[in-house]
From TrEMBL:
Subcellular location: Cell membrane
Pfam families the record matches: LHC (PF00556)
Keyword Kinase attributed: no
Organism from which the protein derives: Allochromatium palmeri
One MF term in the entry's GO annotations: metal ion binding
Function field: Antenna complexes are light-harvesting systems, which transfer the excitation energy to the reaction centers.
Protein name in the entry: Light-harvesting protein
Length: 48
């Protein structure tokens, strides 16, 4: 049966488990944030 969007959007989480991708995305965001901070501080735009 063809899904009726957006009423059936919640069903994707039955197939795609957040336990498999949520923490890797958070870790990637953490690495990105640290990299951005490192660049900003190395340029000299950090705290005085």
């Amino acid at each position: 049966a063809k899904p009726k969007n957006p009423e059936d959007d919640w069903k994707i989480w039955l197939v795609v488990n957040p336990a498999t991708w949520l923490m890797p995305i958070f870790y990637a965001l953490l690495v990105l944030a640290i990299a951005v901070h490192a660049v900003v501080f190395s340029v000299g735009l950090g705290w005085q």
